[in-house]
Design goal:
Layout (H helix, E strand, L loop, with lengths): L5 H4 L6 H15 L6 E2 L11 H14 L15 H12 L11 E4 L2 H7 L10 E5 L3 H9 L15 E5 L17 E5 L11 H13 L3 E5 L24 E6 L1 H4 L7 E4 L5 E3 L5 E3 H12 L5 H9 L3 H27 L4 E3 L5 E5 L6 H12 L1 E2 L1 E2 L10 E5 L4 H13 L3
Parallel strand pairs: 1-13, 3-4, 3-5, 5-6, 6-7
Antiparallel strand pairs: 2-8, 7-8, 9-10, 11-12, 12-15, 14-15
Bound molecules: D-malate.
């Protein structure tokens, strides 16, 4: 029999969202008449912006001509997209990034999963708790952790609790680590890390030769005066990598386009003690394992920066943000304690009546026919909390709030 990767065998549970789908599927089979409202996985529902659709159509038509046909593109992405990204996502906020520091990809899930490959197999890491499970599971798969304890926590990972007491902003690690994953606006808590906190992280990372892996996939939902990028913080170019995505920004969950920014100054060290450029290793990895995202998709992504695209994207963000506002208001009126949801498409709530996260999940599913995400699926400190996504159609969101309010207790 073929030998398996023992590290995969350490994985404590199935991946969160398929597990939710499995449970919801069982419920739907047993209750075929139930009208389920799904506010679990953060998946967009509004149709693709017309500027994006048009740009993708045009790109296909272009490729159907002898002059316009394209085969393999650059694995890091076409220059037109990388330039549009630096102008619109960074220069517009006073952040200098060179287009060559941007690597287009097919998703932030893949990027945040793959980045660990270029670090030592015994590199140490810290994650927040609760946390987007991809950061943890991919390090388990790579053999960077020991086994899981009964609470699902893996040995050799430093978990940084995010609790109501610390306003869901984690303390710095107690011991030096090589890598720390931060996500802001946070999935799942919906909390944004303010500038002074981010500065603290950057100063710590520089003092400890650590690298911050900064997931900003939800930055477009920030409406208050808060940092959108870690590169708005002094010194971040020497200690950070940033992940951005078109998925939630522009409805690309099914189209697939994202990018990573790796500054040229960022260095790591080999076991021989010599420094090397992190970007150089990422390029090497990308060139070996990836042939880039398709030309029509990159043209579609570029279109979100056109005048029309910008308006369309903003209208969709406003729509989801208004949903989040309705969820916050409705749940507060119903007596639930809520967090996030202002600069993020996720509302994090404390489960009522001492129910644990999965008990509340079952209660909402069975009584209100509403699907959310149990907080414990994001880590031990998520226990007793629950996440609702604002990515739903307005009437469904309103109906869900109504049903939740009527079916509490
Ligand atoms: C979520 O619901 O947490 C996200 O949709 C998952 C993802 O983006 O992979």
């Amino acid at each position: 029999m073929a030998r398996l990767n023992d590290h995969y065998l350490k994985l404590a549970a199935g991946y969160l969202f398929p597990e939710i789908s499995r449970r919801v599927g069982e419920f739907a089979d047993a209750n075929p008449k139930a009208n389920l409202i799904k506010l679990g996985i953060g998946d967009v529902v509004l149709p693709l912006a017309s500027s994006v659709r048009q740009a993708m159509h045009d790109a296909i038509d272009e490729m159907a001509t002898a002059e316009g046909f394209r085969g393999y593109g650059p694995s890091e992405g076409y220059d037109f997209l990388r330039e549009a990204i630096v102008q619109n996502d960074f220069a517009s906020r006073g952040v200098q990034i060179d287009p060559s520091e941007v690597y287009a990809s097919d998703g932030s899930k893949c990027d945040s999963a793959n980045i660990q490959e270029i670090f030592a197999t015994d590199a140490t890491l810290a994650v927040t708790d609760p946390v987007y499970p991809v950061y943890v599971d991919t390090n388990v798969m790579a053999g960077r952790t020991g086994g899981a304890d009964s609470g699902g926590r893996y040995a050799r990972i430093e978990y940084l609790p995010c609790t109501e007491e610390n306003s869901f902003l984690p303390a710095l690690p107690e011991r030096p680590v090589d890598l720390v994953y931060l996500c802001s606006p946070n999935n799942p808590t919906g909390v944004v890390t303010p500038r002074d906190e981010l500065q603290k992280w950057v100063d710590w990372a520089r003092a400890n030769d650590a690298i911050i892996l900064f997931d900003a996939a939800y930055e477009r939902f920030i409406s208050e005066d808060l940092p959108h990028s870690i590169f708005e913080i002094d010194g971040a170019r020497e200690c950070a990598i940033e992940f951005r995505s078109f998925s939630k920004t522009a409805g690309f969950t099914g189209i697939r386009c994202a990018y990573i920014v790796i500054p040229e100054e960022l260095k790591g060290r080999g076991s021989n003690g010599e420094q090397a450029s992190v970007a150089q290793l990422w390029r090497r990895r990308t060139n070996t394992k990836f042939n880039g995202i398709s030309y029509p998709v990159q043209r579609g992504a570029e279109a979100i920066y056109s005048e029309e695209g910008r308006k369309e994207v903003q209208a969709n963000i406003d729509y989801y943000t208004a949903n989040a506002g309705l969820i916050l208001e409705g749940l507060s009126k119903a007596g639930l304690k809520t967090f996030g949801g202002v600069n993020a498409p996720y509302v994090w709530l404390k489960t009522p009546d001492g129910l644990d996260s999965w008990q509340f999940f079952d209660q909402l599913l069975e009584r209100a026919n509403v699907v959310g995400t149990p907080g414990s699926g994001f880590g031990a400190h998520g226990e007793g909390y629950f996440r609702l996504s604002a990515f739903g159609l307005r009437e469904q969101v309103e109906e869900a709030i109504d049903r939740i309010a009527k079916n509490l207790g």
